């Protein structure tokens, strides 16, 4: 797989140089092809099976101005998505599913240097996530000026607008995930003025952030959360603009 990833990186460099440099990317920016392949490589190294297909979700945590520019030019993401699919196929490798690119604004990221995370979108057929608000949560208000949210299924946005958000399979959770891998009371998110903290509630399948199992961790924009395999993406913004979205899966 190492030689195939090197081949993918080489092919992507040429294509991005010819298409995106001068539009979405400048030559002095970090090489986008290198960042993408490094993210794929890092996720593969975390897996026990070296012969797995490539992770199909790529989360770009970008400086807010760059994220907004990409949002206003969706054809760039569509082109990059399709180019990834074709380049990987030509190299003899494959994605676990049609690739999806998700862009999240992150003020911590300097311009031209996005943080890219790769993940497997491992959702069982028929699994769903539904929003459920208790009477108490409707009247509560978040203590933070930052608007935080979770992205589900690549396109659904769940606002984290309460100080405490409970997540699990049980119907009295704020976010109900109807997936048998998810525990009845699986995880909890607590928001303060300066932090968003994710807790695992002794779940049977575990809570993971960017591939690492956690009991408690601070979340940052672009973090990929897995609840026993059900994927969520954490994002936040200032509340002055809409959350940045992503691409639909590339067509084979």
TrEMBL record:
This is FHA domain-containing protein. It holds the Pfam family FHA. Residues 165-214 form the FHA domain. InterPro entries: Cell_Proc_Reg/RNA_Proc, FHA_dom, FhaA_N_sf, SMAD_FHA_dom_sf. Coiled coil: none annotated. SUPFAM superfamilies: SMAD/FHA domain.
């Amino acid at each position: 797989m190492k030689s195939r990833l090197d081949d993918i990186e080489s092919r992507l460099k040429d294509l991005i140089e010819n298409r995106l440099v001068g539009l979405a990317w400048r030559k002095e920016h970090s090489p986008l092809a290198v960042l993408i392949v490094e993210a794929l490589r890092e996720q593969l190294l975390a897996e026990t099976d070296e012969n797995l297909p490539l992770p199909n979700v790529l989360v770009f945590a970008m400086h807010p101005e760059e994220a907004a520019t990409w949002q206003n030019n969706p054809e760039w993401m569509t082109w990059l998505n399709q180019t990834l699919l074709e380049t990987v196929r030509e190299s003899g490798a494959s994605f676990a599913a049609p690739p999806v690119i998700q862009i999240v604004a992150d003020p911590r990221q300097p311009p031209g240097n996005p943080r890219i995370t790769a993940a497997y979108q491992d959702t069982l057929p028929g699994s769903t996530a539904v929003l459920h608000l208790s009477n108490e949560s409707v009247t509560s208000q978040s203590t933070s000026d930052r608007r935080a949210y979770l992205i589900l299924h690549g396109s659904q946005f769940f606002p984290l607008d309460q100080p405490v958000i409970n997540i699990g399979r049980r119907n009295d959770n704020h976010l109900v995930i109807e997936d048998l891998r998810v525990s009845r009371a699986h995880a909890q998110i607590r928001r303060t003025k300066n932090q968003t903290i994710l807790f695992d509630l002794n779940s049977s399948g575990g809570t993971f952030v960017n591939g690492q199992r956690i009991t408690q961790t601070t979340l940052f924009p672009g973090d990929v959360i897995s609840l026993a395999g059900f994927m969520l993406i954490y994002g936040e913004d200032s509340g002055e603009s809409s959350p940045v979205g992503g691409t639909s899966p590339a067509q084979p």
